[in-house]
Design goal:
Elements: H1 2-6, E1 24-36, E2 41-47, E3 50-56, H2 62-69, E4 76-85, E5 100-111, H3 128-133, H4 135-138, H5 142-163, E6 168-169, E7 186-189, E8 197-200, H6 205-213, E9 218-226, E10 238-247, H7 251-270, E11 279-282, H8 283-290, E12 303-305, H9 307-310, H10 316-323, E13 327-333, H11 343-354, E14 362-366, E15 372-373, H12 384-391, E16 398-404, H13 407-424, E17 434-438, E18 443-446, E19 451-454, E20 481-486, E21 489-496, H14 501-510, H15 515-529, E22 536-541, H16 543-550, H17 581-586
Parallel strand pairs: 3-5, 6-9, 11-17
Antiparallel strand pairs: 1-2, 1-4, 2-3, 4-5, 7-8, 9-10, 10-22, 12-13, 13-16, 14-15, 14-16, 17-20, 18-19, 20-21, 21-22
Helix pairs in contact: 5-7, 5-16, 8-13, 11-13, 14-15
Length: 597
């Protein structure tokens, strides 16, 4: 009888309003709250659409009263009843259904629930592993329901926009050839071909380029990607990206498309208007001014190079760094009401900088009368006005200095301080600030392996003016690369791709891949390029990370239905797990046990 009754749901728990007064309805859902006042019994019934208050009146039948009294939180029930208006004094303006309640005529218990491991509410303070062990309960919480819905609306809006702009949605395989792409591959042994393996794709990079050769000039996919690397707050072993590729485009074409796409998506999903054009920063300017290549532009605090002024001091730390070809960076921290720039406060900033290589953090306090005191102030005697002008210093400010023989370490160290100050001092404005980072180096030198590597990946086109000097000066080559940054997170990376076989081989050689190794690893791509490959380029925004930012969270676990924990384990189903010997025999695998000491 209960199964038949369950199928008769007529409205959801978030649907009823005063206009439904007197209507007979059937609700299905979970008991969210249960308040038994003797003569009256109040039940808050919840589904993913909302909450409706159900009332068992004092004139209810003994059977109905007994059923209501037996209810516990998270019992799954069906309720038949009559909608009625709440008394004016009991209207709940915070609920969509707050003007009405349902007088119960009948309640069927569809399934029961034991004592809960944690309360199901808007959010929970349960530990992460507890939440992931009982993820099916955690997903019932108001916060998780909203975030999963936000993710759905985000992807839906992406599809809606791209379907109107001549894109095809095309799926690429999950089992592919293992190719080096920067992280470890997840390998899948082949039962039919002993000793051979498929790989799970780190991205559909090569396949989407082959789609361009195939004539599908506008492709996208909501792609699942896999990388065997350490998990962290905004990274998982498996993740989802909007994978896109286009033929016959320039960098500006790609950037303009993404600006229009996310302008549409944020308006549709968040009711938030983005600027028509996103700000553009070169890699060098971003590092120089903000200390990293993913700057949070929701607060100011620019980093200033004071190398010329520092040469006028007699401070060995400054002059020594400059003599070694380095830089001196400075940052003005504006005076903050109620904030004391104590030695403890400054030491905390020094610790943040030390992680990135800064040996020492110099500082000066600007007094109420504009005089410099403390720290390295004595080295600027006679240079106070010049320094104040360079940093726009004001009374009450704190001035910070880092000198380092390596430009990048000086920038990133001061960038860490800037990021910490933005959070600790509450300087970050609400909202969403996108920017493009362009003109990245195409190569970076790996000190451990002592050879050049691709800064992004090996399929990115060098900017035209550097093609003739690729081999002679790899360090100065800029790529036709671009990253999209949102609120201090890199949320997309892309490039115009190489489509010429010989140029691609040159890049492989610079990255220490011989022609023979390149043919072995990437021969199928090179073969495709020999058959009339068009110029093409693309980009891949990370869906998990973007939804995380939109939901104002700091971990992508909060926007993924079934994530792994920080140890790369799923506590709910206990994966990864051992498999039986028969399965291993079929795959021709032997497990090598780690020796115990």
């Amino acid at each position: 009888m209960a199964e038949e009754f369950f199928n008769k749901r007529t409205v959801t728990c978030g649907q009823l309003t005063a206009a439904d007064n007197g209507r007979k309805v059937v609700l299905n859902g979970w008991v969210h709250r249960d308040r038994n006042h003797g003569a009256l019994h109040f039940i808050n019934l919840r589904d993913r659409y909302g909450i409706t208050q159900v009332v068992v009146d004092d004139d209810a039948s003994p059977e109905l009263s007994a059923t209501a009294a037996s209810l516990r939180m998270e019992f799954c029930v069906a309720v038949e009843g009559i909608v009625r208006l709440r008394p004016d004094s009991m209207v709940n303006k915070d609920m969509h259904t707050g003007e009405v309640e349902v007088k119960a005529i009948r309640i069927d218990i569809l399934s029961t629930c034991p004592a809960l491991p944690f309360m199901i509410d808007e959010e929970t303070d349960a530990k992460e592993d507890t939440r992931l062990t009982y993820r099916y309960l955690d997903l019932r919480s108001g916060g998780m329901q909203k975030r999963i819905r936000l993710r759905h609306e985000f992807v839906k809006a992406i599809r809606q926009y791209l379907y109107t702009t001549n894109f095809y949605e095309i799926e690429t395989p999950t089992l592919i050839k293992s190719t080096p792409e920067g992280a470890r591959d997840f390998l899948v042994p082949s039962r039919l071909y002993p000793g051979k393996f498929y790989a799970l794709p780190q991205s559909p990079q090569l396949l989407k380029q082959i789609l361009m050769v195939s004539g599908f000039d506008r492709y996208f996919q909501i792609a699942r990607c896999y990388r065997d690397e350490d998990a962290r707050g905004d990274r998982q072993l498996e993740f989802t990206q909007l994978d896109m590729e286009m033929s016959f485009v320039t960098r500006d074409d790609v950037l303009e498309l993404i600006e229009k796409l996310f302008g549409y998506v944020f308006d549709k999903v968040m009711n938030y208007r983005l600027p028509v054009k996103f700000r553009r920063l070169t890699y060098h300017d971003s590092m120089n001014t903000y200390g990293n290549d993913k700057p949070d532009l929701r607060f100011d605090l620019p980093i200033v190079d004071i190398g010329l002024l520092a040469t006028k001091t007699n401070f060995d730390a400054f002059t020594g760094a400059l003599a070694a070809g380095g830089v001196v960076k400075a940052l003005r921290v504006p005076a903050q009401e109620g904030v004391s720039f104590s030695r403890k406060f400054i030491d905390g900033l020094a610790e943040a900088a030390a992680v990135y290589g800064a040996r020492n953090l110099g500082w000066i306090k600007v007094g109420d009368d504009g005089t410099f005191t403390g720290g390295v102030s004595k080295f600027f005697a006679g240079l106070e006005d010049e320094l104040s002008a360079s940093l726009e210093a004001k009374p009450g400010d704190l001035l910070l200095f880092i000198a380092h023989p390596q430009w990048k370490k000086a920038c990133t160290s001061m960038g860490a301080i800037r990021s910490k100050l933005g959070k600790d001092l509450g300087l970050i404005r609400p909202g969403f600030e996108f920017c493009w980072i362009i003109d990245f180096p195409l190569f970076e030198f790996n000190e451990e392996t002592e050879h050049w590597e691709a800064a992004h990946h090996m399929f990115s086109m060098p900017q035209t003016e550097y093609i003739s000097t690729l081999e002679s000066d790899p360090g100065s080559v800029k790529g036709d690369l671009y990253d999209l940054v949102l609120n201090g997170y890199e949320v997309a990376s892309g490039s115009i791709r190489i489509h010429d076989v010989e140029l691609q081989k040159r890049i492989f050689r610079i990255c220490n891949f011989s022609d023979e190794e390149a043919e072995k690893r990437f021969g199928f791509l090179l073969d495709a390029f020999r058959y009339g490959a068009p110029p093409h380029g693309g980009i891949a925004p990370g869906i998990d990370r973007m939804v995380m930012i939109m939901a104002e969270q700091t971990s992508i676990k909060e926007v993924i239905a079934f994530p792994k924990n920080t140890a790369a384990i799923s506590p709910m189903d206990d994966s990864p797990s051992e498999v039986d010997g028969k399965q291993l025999d079929e795959l021709h695998l032997i497990i090598k046990k780690q020796a115990t000491v």
